[in-house]
Amino acid sequence: MWQDATKKEMSKVEVAFHFNENGSIPIGFQKIACHLIYDVKFDLTRKARYVGGGHMTNVPAAQSNSSVVSRDSVRIMFLIAALNDLDIKMCDIGNAYLNAEARERVHFIAGPEWGSRAGMPVTIVRALYGLKSSGAEWKKSFASYIKHTLGYEPCVGSDDNVYLKAMNDKDGNEYYSYLVVYVDDVLCIHKDPDEVLRIINRDYALKEPPSAPDMYLGADFAKFEIFDEETNTVIITWSMSADSHIKKALEVVQARMNRDNVRFKSKKTAESPFTSQDYRPELDTSEPCNEDQVEFFQSLIGIARWLCELGRVDVLTKISLLSTCLANPSTGHLHQALHMFKYLKDHNSSKIVFDPRYANITDDHLPREQQVQGNVHERVVP
């Protein structure tokens, strides 16, 4: 399986190189090293990646910076899709960096992984993974493609990884179509997203056919049905959850607890993230954690913070309170962090639903100020 993974990677990455059979190297090219990185994916498939030694080059930070779309922007896009009855599909561009030209002038000597061409000088002509400027070069190349080929403009001033285009639907109604880009993952928000994704598929090799998103940036996405009692109809919209990440996080936490022979005393369902509604981390006077416990506590908080990013806002305040103790936690803080994961285990299904219905909000229930004699205002509750 490792041999097959290596062979597959080498056949794809070959486009990034020029083999100098005469043994010469152009003037001004810096020598670096390249190597293979191996990994096992979650579905147990083997993955090989041929990368350049970017650590051996000196590239200014301004030439290597490459931003990605924020999770806030993604949530806003799903809400916009719900409000405007737009469909969403996504695609994943394969070996994306290799579609951009290399900015750095570097070369290496081919190793045994290149078979009969081992020992040849090789110049890198494409944005190879591992080089410092490759991410920025791919973003620049793909942004130009989105603008000049697809006709979308970046949302400058908010998030330049979100692109929009004014369009008309079949009935002539105006609306905006959007593209959301996270490196090589592209979300299309459109009345007919296949119309745009067919063009991308024509110009780039996609890993899989375009499909409705089920996971993006670590969050689970799925269609959700809402029954509207006023209109007696079912509204189909999108929902976002952290269910997959919680499942994997609980496996990590449980494995660590088993290693340290730690068990929860109570088997009852945890009704709140803390063991008591009155618990205050800043007033905890329990014994300080040892070095190993500090590392465990910090990793728990890191995992939980990511869960908050993915939608578990029910633990957000508790995580913020425990985060103030990261530098010097006590065993009481560690206990509360573990209890929080028990709470997540007992309440492991929670969704944020992007409800397209406009809320009918009035202030009739709020106190109103009325001017009375003597220019004194008093609060009147209707």
From TrEMBL:
Domain Reverse transcriptase Ty1/copia-type stretches: 27-196
Protein name as annotated: Pol protein
Taxonomic classification: Eukaryota, Sar, Stramenopiles, Ochrophyta, Bacillariophyta
